[in-house]
Amino acid sequence: MKGTFFEGFALWRKSKSHATLMECLRVRITFTCITGILIFAGVSYRLANIMIIDEHNTSTISIQKNEIIRKADIVDRNGELLATSITTASCYGDPSVVIDIDDAARKLSKIPELPSFELIKQKLSDKNKHFVWIMRHVPPRVQEKVMDLGIPGIALQKDYKRIYIHGNLFSHVIGCSDIDGNGISGLEKRFNDELNRHAESRKKLAISLDIRLQSIMYDELQESVQKFGAIGGNAILMTTDGEILAMVSLPDFDPNDLSKTMSINMFNRNTLGVFEPGSTLKILNVAIALDSGSARVNSTFDATTPIRLGRHMIKDFRGKNRTLSLAEAFVFSSNIAAVKIAQNFGVKTQREYLKKFGIFEKTQIELPEVGAPIIPTRWSEATTMTVSYGYGISVSPLQLITAVTSIVNDGQRVYPSILRGRGRVSGNHIVSIETSEIVRDLMRAVICYGTGKKAGVEGVDIIGKTGTTYKIMGKGYGTDSNRARITTFVGGFPKDKPRYMLIVMLDNPRPIEGTHGFATAGWNVAPTAHNILKRIIPLLNIATKPSNPDLRVTKYMKLN
User: Which of 150, 164, 193, 383 makes a 20 to 30 Å CA pair with 209?
Assistant: First the structure.
């Protein structure tokens, strides 16, 4: 009985202990499960926040960036690629995800191409941000190193970079874009929205320039700038239908690397710069005289004595010191005769024609950098006198070549364009066909007998006119021994039916060995034009027999 009692008590104690143990196990299991569920829920929420919400924020930024920077291609008139957008990757960070900012910045900064430790740390320091650029357009070797680090919150995303295939060659025409792909100059700026819009459709922007002609002009102009010690130069080749085939401005810049570019190098001398055109404006002066009927080719003007204008004397450079026919006055570039020619037709007629020639307004072209002409507010008799030989007003090279083209193109006003097929000619005549023909003969005589001889090309009847303009220095134009000058050649070919026009300018060329101490247009810019013409003419399929000026011009000239 006793044994039975104690055995029963022991069994009861054992069962009680077992029940307690089981209860404890149940409590612990329940606690562990609840804790696990809470941790899982927290982690899941954080992952969802990172993967969905933050990804939405960064992807929105990414999409916006991609929409801005991806742009359509730009090609030349023959379809040669000039500018395109290539796919790259850019490194970005999400500061709200980066666990250890110092550690991340230290690891990233050890990659040589990436920013410094301090800069990366600064970018990642704001935990409220979800997107900051670490480096744009990361090279492939750097992309691999970044991914190998495996830093939470540091990643790469698809990006686009604007590439200019030929570097400096088209820099002032095509222009450039900022790091986000937004156009900041040239065609990139003018057609920024269109280039963005046409990226997906693969539609290209076709310009009127020809890479072959552009390369020739660039090489020859650059060589002349160096040869004559000029501070700059520019040139335009244009069809008489108004299409720009080549346009170069020096100094220039590399649109692929703006970090090394000075702002002055981005200045487009052809369209934004304005200058006093000097004797090249005598083309307009004789056209007005002939077309208005105030003078004829055989009209004579006394050029023996300089003309006093206030404190200044208007005189000829190496003048003939005799009475000159209009033909001689133009070919030998007499300032004295030019003034007297203008005095014959007067202020009103001069202004009316210059307006028709487009001298009083900006020349419209598809570039944002276009300079306005500088015109006197009060147009007096003195203004008419100085304008007759190219002083007192300032125009752009594009404006000058457009006006001259309009005169020699049978008097039809030309409207230039830098897009393929967009140049146009007005059906209205600003001078008569007869006036145009005589002006072409006079310009041919300049090449044959005048200051444009060095611009001539054997086998082609080039027409042209040179001009040397002294630049204002302080309160005047400098002294005879210390004068800064701009030299200009403007002309075209072939004479009887011009199809192409050229303007070339050098900014402050210096005398060199072989120019006999001279730095005027006939000694520097005329041979530069010759070098350009000699190389481009074979590419343009021009085959003409050389001709002399018509007898109606030369018979009124003493050529010896």
Answer: 193
